[in-house]
Specification:
Helices cover about 35% and strands about 30% of the residues. The protein is an alpha/beta fold. It has a seven-stranded mixed sheet, with helices on one face. A two-stranded antiparallel sheet has the order 1-2.
Length: about 220
């Protein structure tokens, strides 16, 4: 690519990134840390190549294994409620493309992300490396709804909708930690935030959300 072509590409990318952030602000995302992370992490690196031109729009995109890359507005809403602080130990259930794990790392989290599909887990490792964030994220293959061990986390992000949040995940919250996910209600899927307090877990159910259903267990294929 010529120097003139490279410069035009840089300008186009900058305009696209600015428009992307403005669209998130228009949807009510006001957290400057989350917006900055979403500005710096290139979603196009994590999106399927054939949808790269749509990566800076607020759209869910199809992934292999019948999965979905969550729309940025939904990701932002969840991250705002999660409130990741630098140094927080973060567990993510459902790696998908690796995009949300990259955002969690950019926010300063020490991220462990668990994916049930080997195809997605392997691709996420490569995409995190391409984004320069592989050192901040550990990708594991397994059942994120029943994580092994006894390690506790300051933040847990559950990327999907479940009838209820599994108790085993709530038990993995450290003192004053919080979990954000989504649950089925009579009004449809809603965001949920669970905080570990001195008196035990406290739960808040929030706004409606579009997320894929959670599936238990490690996939036997793909």
């Amino acid at each position: 690519m010529s120097s003139g072509g490279a410069e035009r590409r840089r300008v186009s990318d900058a305009i696209g990134a600015a428009s992307f952030i403005l669209s998130l602000r228009a949807r009510g995302v006001g957290d400057t840390g989350v917006l900055r992370a979403m500005e710096l992490v290139p979603r196009e690196v994590f999106a399927p190549r054939r949808f790269a031109d749509l990566s800076r729009r607020d759209l869910a995109l199809p992934l292999p294994c019948g999965q979905t890359m969550t729309a940025p507005g939904t990701v932002a809403a969840m991250l705002v409620r999660l409130g990741v602080l630098p140094g927080n130990r973060v567990l993510e259930v459902g790696t998908g493309s690796g995009y949300t794990a990259a955002l969690l790392a950019r926010l300063g989290g020490q991220v462990k992300t668990v994916e049930r599909f080997e195809t997605l887990a392997a691709a996420a490792v490569g995409q995190l490396k391409a984004a320069g964030l592989e050192d901040g994220v550990t990708v594991e293959l397994g059942d994120g709804l029943a994580p092994p061990g006894t390690e506790t986390f300051d933040r847990i992000l559950v990327n999907g909708v479940a009838p209820t949040i599994p108790a085993v995940l709530v038990e993995r919250l450290a003192a004053k930690g919080c979990l954000v996910g989504a649950v089925v209600t009579d009004q449809g899927p809603r965001l949920v935030r669970i905080e570990q307090t001195d008196e035990g877990p406290r739960e808040w159910v929030g706004s409606s959300v579009r997320l894929s259903p959670l599936l238990a267990g490690r996939s036997a294929a793909l």
